[in-house]
Amino acid sequence: MKIKNISHVFFDLDHTLWDFDKNSALAFQNIFSNRKIDLNLADFLKVYQPINFEYWERYRKDEVTKKALRYGRLKDSFDSLKYTVTDDLIDELAVDYVDLLPANNHLLDGGKDILDYLNKTYQLHIITNGFEEVQHKKLKNAGISDYFSTVTTSEEAGVKKPHPKIFETALNKSAARPENSLMIGDNYEADCTGAKTCGIKSIFFDYYANREKIDVIQIKTLNELKTYL
């Protein structure tokens, strides 16, 4: 069933269009090779991914700074594996990671196809809690920056999703009205609850297949958007 009266579609980026897990793994693969880190990559990622998720949740709630996130997620991961790394090296690895992460450009399955499909009918936009300097590189390197009329980051807005101000900033930039807008993202609280606060409809992308019991449309693949748009 199509959602009516939509002119503007706002996407989250990481875990919604951009394949963060795959691109992150490739970045660490390069780092471990270049820096001679003697750890099994799969073992590291198994520990790192939930730690990184937790740090991003804390960052979203303003419980940690950007600097603390970049350092802490690595420090805690290495500590969990009982692998000794100096603070200076962790700082260097944090810089390496931010430099290498946007160099990889894998999208989630159906990402390019759905953008081609939607771009014919809707104005497309990005709203992301990711870092300003990194997110624009991701879009450019993945070859999808031209699809989006506007890109709004939390650093630009001064607040993070689900704060209403970041959605209001995006609406103002795009000259979009809430009642004609739709938000699509993988974080129910940040993307869907935040959008609802501003009167914006939303679709939850169940990236981790958790089958949440929530009051919004859920999709498991990007291609399912064609059912609603």
Automatic annotation (TrEMBL):
UniProt-listed Pfam families: Hydrolase
Domain of life: Bacteria
Keyword Disulfide bond recorded: no
Key words, A-Z: Hydrolase
SUPFAM superfamilies named in the record: HAD-like (SSF56784)
Any one GO molecular-function label of the UniProt entry: 5'-nucleotidase activity
Annotated protein name in UniProt: Putative hydrolase of the HAD superfamily
Species, as recorded: Salegentibacter echinorum
